[in-house]
Amino acid sequence: MTADDVRESATALAGRALGLPELSHARTVAAYVSVGSEPGTPALLDALRARGVHVLLPALLPDNDLDWGPYTGEESLAHVRHGGGRMTLLEPSGERLGPDAVTGADVVLLPGLAVDARGMRLGRGGGSYDRVLARLERAGAHPALVVLLYDTEVVERVPEEPHDHPVHAVVTPSGVRRFG
Length: 180
Known about the structure:
With 180 residues, this protein is an alpha/beta fold. It has four helices and twelve strands, in the order ααβαβββββββαββββ. Strands 3-2-1-6-9-11-12 form a seven-stranded mixed beta sheet. Strands 8-7-10 form a three-stranded mixed beta sheet, with no helix packed on it. It is globular.
């Protein structure tokens, strides 16, 4: 994709996501800052904040679990190196709220590589979001689980492990698909 394609996709994705009833009514959204070739999230994060939504962003812990901190604008993000400097993420630079902070979210926006026709999400393999989903289940929390992807990343079937959980919806630049 060209840089223009990426920008246009991010704008379309934000518009589609903001139209979701789950996000329209959310008070707290656990999200993430896109990296590399992931569909862009900065415009969506800023739009949620402008609506008065409390946005939580992850901070990767040494064991690949996620801590959470508030997003208060682009200036609240810091570049953090992980894995011996192999990977750099934008993470909240302020207060840490703990791994359980995600259990108070009305919506959890999940990154992924693909989602299939059943709503099963293929992650990057680090297990960070598998831990988040397990934490939500243990806490009895039931936020809407939404994956942000490009249209070509919605596929017929992805591999599934016993601990995997289906998501409720996938948002792409061209639309929204909901799952049972």
